[in-house]
From TrEMBL:
InterPro entries registered for this protein in UniProt: Zinc_finger_PHD-type_CS (IPR019786), Znf_FYVE_PHD (IPR011011), Znf_PHD (IPR001965), Znf_RING/FYVE/PHD (IPR013083)
Gene3D superfamilies linked to this entry: Zinc/RING finger domain, C3HC4 (zinc finger)
Domain Zinc finger PHD-type positions: 8-58
PROSITE patterns for this protein: ZF_PHD_1
Highest rank taxon of the organism: Eukaryota
Organism: Eruca vesicaria subsp. sativa
GO molecular function, one term: zinc ion binding
Keyword Cell membrane appears in the UniProt entry: no
Alphabetized UniProt keyword annotations: Metal-binding, Zinc, Zinc-finger
UniProt protein name: Zinc finger PHD-type domain-containing protein
Upper lineage: Eukaryota, Viridiplantae, Streptophyta, Embryophyta, Tracheophyta
Length: 72
């Protein structure tokens, strides 16, 4: 997925509020932003967030919630 450069979460398509920015991840490979709550299996540790890859780059499509599941 390509990022539009505006910081829009690639799952829920919203721009996080300032206070939410601490719960956002940026893919190490492609640089797309994602809300941690939008992932079904967020990184387990702070160290793993530094090496995090989005589902597109990692191939882990199980990490994407089902559309319409109430995710923000």
């Amino acid at each position: 997925m390509a990022s539009d450069g505006e910081g829009v979460c690639m799952r829920c398509k919203t721009i996080p509020l300032t206070e939410e920015s601490l719960t956002c991840l940026t893919c190490l490979t492609c640089g797309t932003p994602w809300h941690v709550p939008c992932l079904t299996s967020p990184p387990a540790s702070l160290a793993s967030t530094l090496q995090w890859e989005c589902p597109d780059c990692s191939g882990d499509f199980d990490d994407l919630p089902v559309p319409g599941d109430g995710v923000r």
